[in-house]
Amino acid sequence: MCGIVAYIGAREARPVIIKGLRRLEYRGYDSAGIALLNGELTVYKKKGKVQDLEDYIGDRNTHAHIGMGHTRWATHGEPNDVNAHPHYSTSGRIAIIHNGIIENYAALKQHLKARGHKFESDTDTEVFVNLIEDILQDNPGVSLAEAVRLALHEVVGAYAIVVLSADEPGQLIAARKGSPLVIGVGDGEFFFAS
User: Where are any strands of DSSP class E within the chain?
Assistant: First the structure.
C-alpha cells in the first residue's frame, strides 16, 4: 500500500512530511518522493528508501509551508525514479500523489495524448494529474477543487489523492474513494495521511 502525507501550515513542510513518511515505512515501498511549493512547485523523488530521498535532496533550499510526500508500492510501471510520486502535469504547474488503482487509465491516457499531453512515466497517477490539467485548460475560471471533482467523475477505480497547484498555492485538495485518507486539524495547520 502506498503512503500519503501532506501538510499546510506555519511550520517548515519538509521535516513534517519526511517524519510522516518514516512512520509509514512499515508498509513496504519501492520509492519515495516529496513536492514542495514556495512560489515554484518542486518535486524530488527517488527509487529506494526515504533516507535515499533525504540524501538526494541534501542541503538544497526546500523552504516551504505547504507540501506533500509519498511512498510507492508499484502497481503500474516498474520501480524507478521516473515512476515514483509525486507526478507533475504536462505544464509542471500541478502535482499529485495517489494511493490506489485507476482501472480506465489506458483509455484516458490515449485521449489525453491526442489532446497534446505528454507523459514521462508508466503510471496511472500521471494520467490523473493530466486529466485535472486538461479540465482546467478547457474551462477557464474553474477552480482546482472543481477540476479535481470533475476529474473524479471520469476515473474508475479506488483512490486517495492529494493535489497541489502553483496557480492556487494556498491549498491542498484531497479526495478518496475506497482507499484510506485521514485529515488532521491543528492550530493553524492541516495534515493528510493514508
Answer: 3-8, 31-38, 40-47, 66-72, 87-88, 94-102, 157-165, 172-177, 182-185, 190-193
